[in-house]
Design a protein that fits this description.
The protein is α+β, with helices and mostly antiparallel strands and about 450 residues long. The chain folds into four domains: about 160 residues, Reverse transcriptase/Diguanylate cyclase domain (Alpha-Beta Plaits, 2-Layer Sandwich), CATH 3.30.70; about 55 residues, DNA polymerase, domain 1 (Orthogonal Bundle); about 110 residues, 2-Layer Sandwich (Dna Ligase, domain 1); about 80 residues, Roll (SH3 type barrels). Helix content is about 35%, strand content about 25%. The protein is globular. The structure holds a DNA duplex (18 and 18 nucleotides). It is found in: Cytoplasm.
Length: about 450
DNA sequence: TCTGGGGTCCTAGGACCC
DNA sequence: TCTGGGGTCCTAGGACCC
């Protein structure tokens, strides 16, 4: 642990929902829920207005709808979130070369690598405030909460303390007095199961945890976890901020609104997922030796089966055939709610001579798959998901307010032109198109750098 | 019709090798 | 008849994170 508050943790507030409110003025000040909108969807992000009704991340969308029926339920526009995230990460890197993104909306910054004149509290505080202002400026008004402390652990705890749009600085030396009264749950790696185990052992707070010996903790939680908690309970955390981390696996999975029972359909879906995995492997110049399938049964029991190949592959056909073979050994007669395919044991090289063969094999193997109409049974993506950007020949840019029964309702409103009407169209109206371009609208006057995500 | 998707890390047992 | 140990790889499952 360092003796300066030079680890910064930044967390964008209600990120996905905030991007939607930024781009769709009618949603400002209103409850917005972004996440899965299907029958088995869960909430990814709820705006603060929706949180007032008890809507939370990871809650089923069904429950969120019953708690807050008048919220806008949107299925998410990842290109827009990624664009906003990249602008924020660029601002962080302008402060210090040592930036560790944890997700689209969160990152650590090591101010000790920033080349500042000093790392005193006034200096780092000013850097943090300037950074928050820059984030708002460059994203068109998104707010961030920031924590500054002597370690990742405490910086992250600190960023939670004044949300949204706040800054908390923990002076070095005061970490333990901050942590002691907090629930043990604030410690990274302490989730529901560990919390329950600790509760049964009479441990509720960080102070309670601190009273346990290393031996007791290891007995209670195992070696790695025990050692980790022993240190965290004392605010000891030497984990460095790491800029580049290599991917260890690539996977695709899907939960279906109704349980699958048709094996040929499952094989078709696995094959399609294998293709997506292979595409992503190739896009990153990776290949891997271990193919894993994941199967969640109707009763939520989750199975995995894996097979390690003699050499790494990035070929769709090889991944697909391996996946289908693994599925063959499982009893899925009760119905399957989730299927997934992943590749791990990644290497950043491909065996050149095998590459051509594998690629050819890939095409063949894709064709081997049972003749089910996958697109009819499970369309790859719905054309008009709620919240999606669209453009109409006559009315211009807008977004999907609702869809179903052959009709799509569009609100013609963007951050740049916030006063458009709401109109309905036939779903197959050729004048209406998904807006997928990452370029700004032709002719659109953009005053906010992010109003047309790139 | 409770319970997403993309990840990481850890544990534990068995095979196999020296 | 009894008696090893360590190391690595692989597999399956589970907890956790955002």
């Amino acid at each position: 642990m360092r003796d300066t508050a030079s680890v910064l943790h930044l967390d964008l507030d209600a990120f996905f929902a905030a991007v939607e409110q930024r781009d769709k003025p009618s949603l400002r000040g209103k409850p917005v829920v972004v996440g899965g909108t299907g029958g088995r969807g869960v909430v990814a992000t709820a705006s603060y207005e929706a949180r007032r009704f008890g809507v939370r991340s990871a809650m089923s969308t069904r429950e969120a709808r019953s708690r807050c029926p008048h919220a806008a339920f949107l299925s998410g526009r990842f290109p827009a979130y990624r664009a906003a995230s990249e602008l924020v990460m660029a601002e962080l890197r302008a402060v210090s070369p040592l930036v560790e993104p944890l997700s689209l909306d969160e990152a650590f910054v090591d101010l000790a690598a920033a080349g500042l004149p000093d790392l005193t509290l006034p200096t780092v505080t000013e850097v943090a405030q300037r950074l928050r202002a820059r984030v708002a400026e460059v994203t068109g008004g998104l707010t961030a909460s920031v924590g500054l402390a002597s370690s990742k652990f405490v910086a992250k705890v600190a960023s939670e303390l004044d949300k949204p749009d706040g800054l908390t600085v923990v002076p070095p030396g005061t970490e333990q007095e901050l942590l002691r009264p907090m629930p043990a749950r604030v410690i990274p790696g302490v989730g529901p199961q560990t919390t329950e185990r600790l509760r049964r052992a009479g441990v509720h707070t960080v102070a309670d945890l601190e009273a346990l010996s290393l031996d007791e903790l290891v007995r209670l939680l195992g070696k790695a976890h025990g050692h980790g908690l022993h240190a965290f309970a004392r605010a000891q955390d030497d984990r460095p901020v790491v800029a580049e981390r290599e991917a260890k696996s690539v996977s695709v999975e899907g939960t279906y609104d109704t349980d699958l029972t048709d094996r040929r359909l499952m094989e078709g879906l696995l094959t399609r997922q294998a293709g997506e995995v292979a595409t992503r492997l190739r896009a990153h110049g990776l290949s891997g030796r271990t193919v894993t399938i994941k199967v969640r049964l109707h009763d939520f029991t989750t199975l995995s089966r894996s097979s390690t190949l003699p050499s790494p592959t990035d070929a769709a056909g090889v991944v697909a055939r391996t996946a289908r073979t693994l599925l063959a050994d499982l009893d899925t007669s009760g119905g399957v709610r989730l299927l997934g395919v992943g590749v791990s044991g990644l290497a950043d090289w491909v065996q050149e001579d095998l590459f051509a063969d594998d690629a050819a094999l890939g095409d063949e193997a894709a064709d081997e798959v049972a003749p089910v109409d996958l697109e009819a049974a499970f369309p790859r993506r719905r054309t008009w998901p709620p919240g999606a950007d669209v453009v109409h020949e006559e009315h211009g840019r807008g977004w999907v307010w609702g869809s179903g029964r052959g009709v799509v309702t569009v609100r013609f409103e963007t951050a740049a032109s916030p006063s458009g009407p709401v109109r309905s169209f036939a779903e197959d109206d050729p004048a209406l198109q998904r807006w997928t371009s990452t370029e700004p609208d032709p002719g659109e006057v953009t005053t906010q750098p992010l109003s047309s995500p790139t």
